[in-house]
Specification:
- The protein is mainly alpha-helical and 539 residues long.
- It folds into 3 domains: 37-199 and 304-451, no CATH class; 201-289, no CATH class; 455-538, no CATH class.
- 68% of the residues lie in helices and 2% in strands.
- A two-stranded antiparallel ribbon has the order 1-2.
- It starts with a strand and ends with a helix.
- Its main location: membrane.
- Pfam families: FUSC_2.
- It is found in: Membrane.
- Residues 322-448 form the Integral membrane bound transporter domain.
- Keywords: Membrane, Transmembrane, Transmembrane helix.
Length: 539
């Protein structure tokens, strides 16, 4: 939802741009909304099947419930969703390798902590796990934010460490955890690529269909508060999918369909004809350019004044604090407090959206514990345990990107069932500890979100606008066509980053942002005029 607020030109003191200052969507929409985002069931099925294949095979071969550990490697299947097969195999392979590595790291740290405490060592040995989880989430969050990968981001790598660290206490060796995770990783790759031969254009068709549906919803007579934002996001995602499939620039039916939907959405901005992108959604009547190189994106993230380092700094404060508090209060394992704090902070510095994530985390955990209580009444065989884990994994995939609170309903029992391999536990003690750790994690995360680097949104917006200005300057000096094309791609990426920074600032401090807006708006308009000059006025 966007609230239009006039912004005065600070140079003349009189001109009113009339450009909108973005505001958060209504609380009800952010807390309870479940965006459609196209057909989700194929990805949900893939998530469940990726778990079932190696785990059920392991059970059939007599490996009992430990085979469910393959789920850790199968997490990688989620990262291939929405991507063309041409690049999907590479993305899933990288994600799978990360999951297997972190499963081994988590199990090794868990074994160290378990052996030390079993030998009579201090409970502070648990801080070794806290430190390991903090390092993992800080590195993963930096990479994910720098590359603009979006959800699920750093969540599943950290969950892999958290779950695998609990397994050595059940007698599962580090080698077993790593081997079963590798089996799940292979399954994730095979399942994610399973449609390549029969229907090689399915990801592209799905992305275009989702974008067309989102545009129709945004242009309907009664659009939802977030409908235009969802439409723009779907259009950008669809174009990137077509870029990955090497279809952009070709006269392909999917390209023509997406172009028509794009033009319909770009034709009106707040009821007026638009020839350049708006300040709040970066939609312009030209084809979005492909992503810059990984090196360029990580180089941009490496700026200490940027948003990625702000996220990392807050994680480095919140995660150890949450873990230490949990240990001080006598909780046997501090990992749930750490992962709670991390999941509220890892997706970005926006205070308003971060606060809503905290509410999602708490209420989703409570409902997840209720579901766990129901599962605890069942005497599950190894095969049944695998099926339950697969269903919980499918539920996680169904809602992780759409509503974090609903996803937590499935994630909570998934983590506890998998971390305990179906063994009977003291349900009262588990519920008490998880609720206490959730409250601690949420409280610490929100405190850090609002007090650590409280003025970072100003620095982030200034830095993002400076990057845009710098790229415009380099583009003006460039002469070689190849260099111009690369700089245009970089400029569009920088403009998107600037828009994201401006939205965060507007959510956090509307008054300051309103004063800053004319300068931001002028730079934004200039950048898109330059892109239009190089790539033509219209699709």
């Amino acid at each position: 939802m966007v609230v239009s607020v006039g912004a005065q030109d600070q140079g003349t003191g009189s001109r009113d741009y009339g450009v909108p200052i973005p505001a958060p969507a209504p609380a009800r929409s952010l807390l309870l909304g479940v965006p459609k985002q196209g057909r989700r069931w194929p990805g949900v099925v893939r998530a469940g099947v990726a778990v079932c294949l190696p785990a059920l095979a392991g059970v059939a071969l007599g490996h009992s419930a430990v085979a469910a550990t393959a789920t850790l490697g199968a997490f990688a299947v989620v990262y291939g969703e929405g991507r063309a097969y041409r690049v999907r195999w590479r993305v899933v392979t990288i994600a799978a390798a990360v999951m297997v590595l972190l499963a081994g790291v988590g199990a090794a740290v868990g074994a160290l902590v378990h052996d030390a405490t079993a030998a009579g060592g201090s409970a502070l040995w648990g801080m070794a796990l806290v430190v390991a989880m903090t390092v993992v989430v800080a590195v993963c969050a930096f990479v994910v934010d720098g590359l603009r990968l979006g959800a699920p981001g750093a969540f599943l790598p950290l969950l892999t460490v958290e779950i695998s660290s609990a397994l050595p206490a059940l007698g599962v060796s580090v080698a077993e955890v790593t081997a079963w995770s590798a089996a799940g990783a292979v399954s994730a790759l095979l399942v994610s690529m399973s449609g390549l031969l029969a229907r090689p254009r399915t990801p592209e068709r799905a992305a275009v269909a989702t974008a067309v549906s989102a545009v129709e919803a945004a242009l309907s007579d009664t659009p939802a508060p977030n409908s235009r934002r969802d439409a723009v996001r779907s259009l950008h995602a669809a174009w990137q999918c077509l870029h990955d499939a090497a279809l952009v620039g070709r006269d392909h039916p999917l390209t023509r369909t997406l172009r028509a939907a794009h033009l319909r959405c770009a034709a009106t901005v707040d009821g007026h004809d638009a020839d350049h992108a708006t300040d709040v959604d970066d939609l312009r009547p030209q084809v979005p350019l492909p992503r810059p190189s990984i090196r360029y994106r990580l180089g941009r993230a490496a700026h200490l004044r940027g948003r990625s380092w702000t996220i990392v700094a807050r994680l480095l404060v919140a995660c150890p604090a949450a873990g230490l508090l949990a240990l001080a209060l006598g909780v046997a394992r501090p990992d749930w407090a750490v992962i709670t704090a991390a999941m509220i902070l890892h997706q970005g510095p926006d205070r308003v959206l971060g606060t809503y994530r905290g509410l999602h985390r708490f209420f989703g955990t409570v409902l997840g514990l209720v579901l766990l209580a129901g599962l605890a009444t069942l005497d599950l065989s190894a095969g049944a345990l695998v099926l339950v884990v697969a269903l919980l994994m499918a539920g996680t995939e169904a809602f992780l990107v759409r509503n974090y609170g609903l996803a937590m309903v499935f994630i909570t029992p998934l983590a506890l069932v998998l971390g305990g391999l179906g063994t009977h536990v003291d349900l009262v003690a588990v519920t008490r500890d998880r609720l206490l750790e959730t409250v601690l994690g949420v409280a610490v995360a929100l405190l850090v979100l609002w007090t650590v680097l409280p003025g970072s949104y100003r620095r982030i917006l200034r830095d993002a606008d400076d990057q845009v200005a710098g790229t415009i300057g380099r583009l003006g000096d460039a002469r070689e066509p190849a260099a111009v094309a690369e700089l245009c791609r970089d400029l569009e990426f920088d403009l998107h980053s600037s828009t994201t920074a401006a939205i965060t600032a507007a959510h956090t401090d509307p008054a300051w942002t309103r004063d800053r807006w004319p300068e931001h708006h002028h730079l934004h308009e200039l950048g898109y005029r330059i892109l239009t000059r190089h790539f033509g006025p219209r699709l």
